[in-house]
Amino acid sequence: MLAIALSYVLEALFYVYQKPAPQHVLLRILSVALVWTALAVCLSRTKSLLWNPYVGVFVLGFLFESIATTVLLATRGYLHTVTLCFSIMRPVITLALSTNGILVILSCRAEQHTDEEAQSLLQRDNADTLQQPQRRLEEPDNWVEYLQGFAIFMPHLLPWHDSKILCSLAIRIIIAILNRGINVAIPRQLGIAIDKLSSGSGKMPWKEIAFWICYLWLDSRAGLDVLDSLAHTCIQNSSYKQITNLAMGHVMDLSFDFHSNKDTGEILKAIDQAGSLNNLAQLVIFEIIPIVIDFISAIGYVTHLFDIYLTSVIFGISATYISLRIVANPWIQRKQRELVEKIRSESQVAYEAVLNWLTITYFDQIRFEKQRYSSVVQDVVDTSYSYLYRLLCGNAAQDLIMTAGFAGCTSLAMLQVTTGQKSIGSLITFITYWSAIRGTVQRVTGSYQTISSTLVNAERLLQLLYTEPSVTNAESSKELVLKAGEIEFQGVSFAYDPRKPLIGNLSLVAEPGSTVAIVGTSGSGKSTILTLLLRLYDVSKGSIKIDGQDVRTVTLSSLRRAIGIVPQIPMLFNLSIKENIRYGRLGATEREIEDACKSAAIHDKIMEFPDGYETKVGEGGVRLSGGELQRLAIARVLLKNSKIVVLDEATSAVDTLTEAEIQVALQRLQSGRTVFVIAHRLSTIVGADKILVVDKGQIIESGTHDELLAKGGTYKGLWTQQTLTK
Ligand SMILES: Nc1ncnc2c1ncn2[C@@H]1O[C@H](COP(=O)(O)OP(=O)(O)OP(=O)(O)O)[C@@H](O)[C@H]1O
């Protein structure tokens, strides 16, 4: 392919120096050379080659080359040994290319056929669906699919239903159209003014100069740009709002399996970087499209002003300039992607260090953490230098081409002025217009660079958006209708990891208004049983029913509204005590909050704090003691006032005196509610209606305290151990 392109370039040079040819012949030769060069460059950069379009080009090339050669021989126009050689060589090469391509396609088909037979259809489809989004991001070579991946952002980047946005869009489109005219009008007007000046009339061309200044004003930042910037900011703010809300909303909607594996710092950075997508749609509409229009008008205007030679040179330079960026971009982008990843790990390390400051201090590892952070920062700096180096190399190579092109074009134009073919005004117009042409071509690569870095920045967010929540509302899900509050586990099996089954065929019934206690060794799956009730995970077998309704058939929101939970390690927001308790029921009055705190035996303690209910609890509740934290969590659930209550070691961190107080509160809480209690301290569950002893995800004993003691099994052993220890 390069040989064909080279033959055309040599033929063009031959025509320029040996045998002048009409402009249309030269233009054809140069255009075809460009097409073959572009095709060869594309082919050299393709990793997973799609042969069909290339073979199509080769076959068409062979047809056209053969016709061109036949016509040339028949008309004997511009025939010379050199051109004759080229004209015969090209059909031969294209024929060879076509034959080779067809053979490759046939052999590929044969291979594919055997591959497909060896693979089951279902397997292939599943693998395809699962890997599609990932593959799109990992194979930037397949750029159509890669871009398709980002299409989910489009409705958020340009919200069509918003009249304010539509109005801003209309303003920007009108200004963009006006700007296209102004771009040509400025150099044209200057040329007209100079021609009038040099006409020797001795008059000042006031009118022409006034128009020129007026165009300059419109083009300046005091002109149309003011209105354009306002409209731009309006659209940008709207897409910022939409994209960040989309990102945050999606992360909040993801299920517990995602949140138990996530890297918080890295996720926060990914959401933060989503902001860079704001400008994407506007960049395409108001940069790329105007650039194409500018370029076409530049080509037309220069042809009108001078001739097709100059236009072809400009066209060739521009194509080389842009191709260079396209070729260099993957090389630059690789470093940029590395840089983005390094920046994300930097925020992850910083986040973890700040979050775990206390642990770091306990183990006196502050120096180690400082070093760790400084080493990731150094990594970021080093990578940013390598990225900058690659970027500068690309820019320098491009600008060299542009400068050489300017020298060539201006010399050509000056040549025409010296021979009297063109006026000095035309030359000035061309020189002024050159900066517009250069600007246009530079904007193409600038926009390409911006778009590609925006996309690289947003890749992580895109991966996040492709992550589906594993627990969702079923299509026909209804609100949970709570009646008496009966809970039934029927043959429930579950595993966090399929390789390690945890709960196997577990069945239990919690009667309405009863208290069911779950006891057992650490890690036996007690908390997991209750996370299944909350549908943080779905059971892999069996079902969980509340008042006869399967938890998978009711909405997640109604299910979680019905259950109040006091977790093992309660987490609080870094807000005041009052605001944290109000989280149980946002509409609660101050009186209700105080009542809940009194019931949870924490009111007096809160009143001892200098700021009372306004005391800030610190991140996660770090400024409170373990016992205070647990009692606040109980108060929060009391305020929520839900029919079903789950207490996961709710009193493990309080002394026996406080525990006795809380027990009174809990008894109040338990009346009329179905309660699940997980407790290691068996003294707290002796009054439970049913005690289940769990081991390795199975219920091995069940009954009341007395029944279990009478049985003399595992429970009796645990009880004896604890009472003896006491
Ligand atoms: N989100 C999770 N992802 C993967 N494995 C988990 C997850 N949560 C718990 N596990 C594992 O499941 C097993 C049971 O954990 P679970 O918290 O249910 O035990 P437990 O009986 O409540 O223990 P403890 O009394 O110590 O609180 C443990 O081996 C634990 O490592």
Automatic annotation (TrEMBL):
One of its GO terms (molecular function) is ATP binding. Residues 173-453 form the ABC transmembrane type-1 domain. InterPro entries: AAA+_ATPase, ABC1_TM_dom, ABC1_TM_sf, ABC_transporter-like_ATP-bd, ABC_transporter-like_CS, P-loop_NTPase, Type_1_exporter. Signal peptide: none annotated. GO terms for cellular component: membrane. SUPFAM superfamilies: ABC transporter transmembrane region, P-loop containing nucleoside triphosphate hydrolases. Its main location: membrane. It is a multi-pass membrane protein. It comes from the Eukaryota. The keyword Kinase does not apply. Residues 487-721 form the ABC transporter domain. The keyword Nucleotide-binding applies. Belongs to the ABC transporter superfamily. ABCB family. Heavy Metal importer (TC 3.A.1.210) subfamily. PANTHER family: ATP-BINDING CASSETTE SUB-FAMILY B (PTHR24221), MITOCHONDRIAL POTASSIUM CHANNEL ATP-BINDING SUBUNIT (PTHR24221:SF503). This is P-loop containing nucleoside triphosphate hydrolase protein. It comes from Bimuria novae-zelandiae CBS 107.79.
